[in-house]
Amino acid sequence: MWTFKLISILSILCITLISGLFPFFKKISSSEEQSFPIAESLAAGVFLSVALIHMLGTASDGFYKLHYHYPFAFLLAGVMFLFLLWLEHIGQEIVEHKGDASGSFAVLATIMLSVHAFLMGAALGLSASFSIAVVIFFAILAHKWAESFSLAIQINKSNFSFKMNVLLFCIFSLMTPIGIVLGTEATTTMGNYPLLEPIFSSLAAGTFLYLGTLHGLENATLIKKCCDLKHFYFVILGFAIMAVVAIWT
Hints:
- By secondary structure, the chain is mainly alpha-helical.
- It is built from nine helices and no strands.
């Protein structure tokens, strides 16, 4: 698993850097110019299924085994879901009042997507099952390039200096690898800190629920693209893949 997770770190970092590099050297007005809705739809289904079928159940069991009978797993997932939605609403308010070239919007977008990225990496790092880790890895890749590309466009719209733009993008780029490393370390130190795994899993589940449903609000896959049944079928396919994988995990 360590070998696979190391390969995942390098692959995700490369995809992030490559997909985000182009907007730093060529002005692009919209991320819609580089979009693969089928891949995004498939990833949305995978994220939903991972959160609902795999992560929340495992996290809830973890809390109960430690004699916490309150449904903390669902509480933490819900808090993370609402926190990310709150950040996105703040972002829309900033755009309405200051425009999408505002530096504060670039910083907020970096913070929100960095939270996504870190917890996606933590979910992969926490995966004890190779089959689940592989599917999460491919779902992250399907989502990561688009997220990286979109953030790079947004950062370069801002009135920050080139160095500041690079710094913001580098912070985002490192979040998933850091999440993978810390998630993996959490699985090896659970004897000393047994609450780490269920807490990380719950927060990651909330993130995955958000990514699979409302991420992007009116541009979210389940809102914008589901009017096209072809795309919605890929959401169902992604969900079904992880539901089948649950048979052996």
